Amino acid sequence: MGLGFQVLDFQITLPLNTFLAYIAYKRKFLECKAVIVSFVMGCIIGGFGGLALYMTIVGFFVVSSIFTFYKHDIKRKYYIVMSKGGTRDSIQVLSNGLVATVIAILYAMTTLKEYFFLAYIGTLATVTSDTWATELGILSSRKPRLITDLKRTVEPGVSGGVTLLGYGAALAAGFFIATVAYVFYRLKLVFTEFNGFYISPEVIYLVAIVSGLIGCTVDSILGATVQGFYYCEKCKTFTERRIHTCGEKARLVHGYEFFDNDVVNLTSSIIGALIGFALALTLL
Ligand SMILES: [Zn+2]
Q1: What's the rounded Cα separation, in Å, for the pair 221 and 159?
Q2: DSSP 3-state assignment of 82?
Q3: Which of 17, 40, 129 is closest to 93 using CA atoms?
Q4: Backbone angles phi, psi at 68, to 5 degrees
Q5: Mean model confidence pLDDT for the chain
Q6: Angle between helices 7-26 and 32-44 in degrees, nearest 10
Q7: In the chain, where are the structural domains located?
Q8: Distance 238 CA to ligand 1 centre (A)
């Protein structure tokens, strides 16, 4: 098949993709529509991006799902503030994976493979850092501080709130994404002796860690500034939900209605990809 479609890689990734879709549905990691969206994205990334790109997003998905449901009972009480929680919907899946999917296609169809490979790592490191920082940082025993005014503390779950534990998790996420990407990049050399390009492990780790840390910082800054933040008169509580969990329409306190958590995630995933691409231009 033309267009850079990788038949061998697709034959390996399709069964795994089908199995993961089944698990995601069974264990309620994803809502029904989100299972379909992520299955389609997985097919595109597995076929065009190949094994290394596919396994990187699988790594993100599997470990992030485990972290999301880790100490779920403690986190559940913050869902009243957070825009969403627990089982992910199709919009959340798209806001995390759309940029990666587009890059996988560009990777297959252009000759700039090594640049798109690193842009892909940049966007994946950003969404992974952001997810781990949120899911683990929320368990911090210290109150989060607002990224735009570190003297102010905010409630756990509020966008823009950062903790040292969250940043530790973001750093670990960068290491993790680099490791998965590099291992499968090398593994492909064992079978086919050719990737079409060479990238050193140092560059892969540097790109993943730098884009992850900057990307999730951008996410927090957007969360503290432009993201819609509301007050529910009925429950006398602040929330990121336009329609509060009680069913009441909440009043906009700051930010823009259009900028919900998903738009913020999509924006930072684009910025993560741009950082990865820019680092590729500088380092390669
Ligand atoms: Zn309410």
Answers
A1: 9
A2: coil
A3: 40
A4: -65, -40
A5: 93
A6: 170
A7: 7-283
A8: 9
What confidence score (pLDDT) does residue 157 get?
Answer: 85
Structure confidence at residue 193 (pLDDT): 61
pLDDT for 4 equals 81
Give the global pTM.
Answer: 0.94
Q: For residue 88, what are the β-bridge partners?
A: 30
Q: Report the pLDDT value the prediction gives residue 77, as an integer from 0 to 100.
A: 83
pLDDT digits (tens, 9 = 90+) for 12-59: 999 999 999 999 999 999 999 999 999 999 999 999 999 999 999 999
Residues 6+ apart with CB under 8 A from 228: 240, 242, 252, 255, 256, 257, 258, 259, 260
Amino acid at 192: T
Q: Quote the ligand 1 centre to 26 CA distance (angstroms).
A: 31
HSE (side-chain half, CA atoms, 13 Å) at 160: 23
Q: In whole angstroms, what is the distance from residue 11 CA to residue 1 CA?
A: 13
Instruction: For the chain, list residues with pLDDT below 50.
Output: 1
Measured in Å, residue 40 CA sits from the centre of ligand 1 at 36
Query: Ligand 1 centre from 90 Cα, in Å?
Result: 24
Q: Are 124 and 283 in contact (CB under 8 A)?
A: no
Pair 124, 57: CB distance under 8 Å: yes
Q: What pLDDT, on a 0 to 100 scale, did the predictor assign at position 72?
A: 87
Over residues 202-218, the pLDDT tens digits come to 999 999 999 999 999 99
CA–centroid distance, residue 235 to ligand 1 (Å) = 4
Residues 268 and 219 sit within 8 Å (Cβ to Cβ): yes
DSSP 29: S
Ligand 1 centroid to residue 239 C-alpha, Å: 8
Measure 279 CA to ligand 1 centroid, in angstroms. Answer: 45
